[in-house]
Amino acid sequence: MNFDIFSIFNPDWWMNENNNALLITDSILFLFMAVPVLYLFVCALFSLGKYKNPYPAAKTDHRFLVVFTVLRNGKEVIESINHFLDTQHYPREKYDIAVAATQLSEADLLTLLQMPINIVVPDKDQCTKVYAIQQVMERYSPNEYDMIVLFNSDNKVVPEALRLFNNAYYSGCDAIQAHRMTENLTTSIAVLNATSEEINNNIFRKGHTRMGFSSALIGSAMAFDFRMFHEIAPTLKGSDISKAMETALLRQNIYTEYLEEVVCYSKKEESANGYEAQRLGWLRSQYSSALFAIKQLLLAAIALTFLMALPEGEIARRFRKAIWALPILMFESIFSHILRFKKRENKQ
Binning pLDDT at 50, 70 and 90, where does residue 219 land? Predict the structure, then answer.
């Protein structure tokens, strides 16, 4: 290799070397980015088409324990339980309802005590959802029920939910994720949030199951074999029930089914302050027009992937209007972070 020590003093040498290094680095980064984009694209392709429930009617009505977890908002869970009791098309003697209640007012507790449910108050005022569910499971024996269904306090499920869960369980499913959707489409922020969740449903649940992969768990509207869950529950760690359960199920090689027909409605944040789970990023610089064009093709592919994963319906129709709220959302999110930073400085 011919190398002149004095060439390092030549600006042209540095420019060429830097350009080569940038091109190599950019190409490597592009390959790393292309793999997840291709993965999402394939999942979106598999999610296309009409869903068909593969499970026939069960010959047995299994016993269910339906668990609602609630933190502070007692009126919300009271409304959800009443809705569940009034609408479910399943024999009432075949399911019981339990509530993991933390930090509720006396009035809400008195109302719950008058309802045909079991109330479990965790021994810690400040506890995670995982701990609250563990406290519930300590009250029951492994053979007391066949399946357990986990809901959040605001969840309202379709009338055929238990019936469809029962059919899948009768056919051999030990872990099931329902189709969670947003109930309140009252603001553009809520519509954007609902759109994001529907894309996740189609890619990581509907697409996954059609490809033969296990469905990703959401954290609510989940159903499990009772004995299995009774064994797993004490070993769960952390605050995120979905991640903890996914890890436990993967260790035991247990497949999670996704039932798109079992729609479970939940309430979403309607303001920018509650929308911080999603982060928006921007490309700061580009080094050549050719690489810029390649990256734009990559961005176009992922945009097409997300559009493919968005099903037709009320959310899709409102999304066209809600997309214009993105600049406002970004400004409000940045402004809220600035205010929080100033408050921390003032406290210090």
Answer: confident
Q: How far apart are CA 178 and CA 166, in angstroms?
A: 13
- Residue 289: what pLDDT? 41
pLDDT, one tens digit per residue, over 40-51 is 888 888 888 888
Categorise residue 96: left if φ over 0, alpha if ψ from -120 to 50, beta otherwise. Answer: beta
Residue the block writes with tokens 């969840």:
155
Spatial distance between the Cα atoms of 90 and 108, rounded to a whole number of angstroms: 27
**Sheet with 222-225: strands ordered across:** 118-120, 95-102, 64-71, 147-152, 222-225, 175-182, 256-266, 156-157
Label each residue of the chain as H, E or C. CCCCHHHHHCHHHHHHHHHHHHHHHHHHHHHHHHHHHHHHHHHHHHHCCCCCCCCCCCCCCCCEEEEEEEECCHHHHHHHHHHHHHHCCCCHHHEEEEEEEECCCHHHHHHHHCCCCEEECCCCCCCCHHHHHHHHHCCCCCCCCCEEEEEECCCEECCCHHHHHHHHHHCCCCEEEEEEEECCCCCHHHHHHHHHHHHHHHHHHHHHHHCCCCCCCCCCCEEEEHHHHHHHHHHCCCCCHHHHHHHHHHHCCCCEEEEEEEEEEECCCCCHHHCCCCCCCCCCCCCCHHHHHHHHHHHHHHHHHHHHCCCCCHHHHHHHHHHHHHHHHHHHHHHHHHHHHHHHHHHC
**Mean pLDDT, residues 288-309:** 58
Of 279, 211, 224, 293, give the one whose Cα is nearest residue 254: 224
CA angle 100, 234, 205 (to 5 degrees): 75
Reported as a single tens digit per residue, the pLDDT across 20-67 is 566 666 667 777 777 777 888 888 888 888 888 899 999 999 999 999
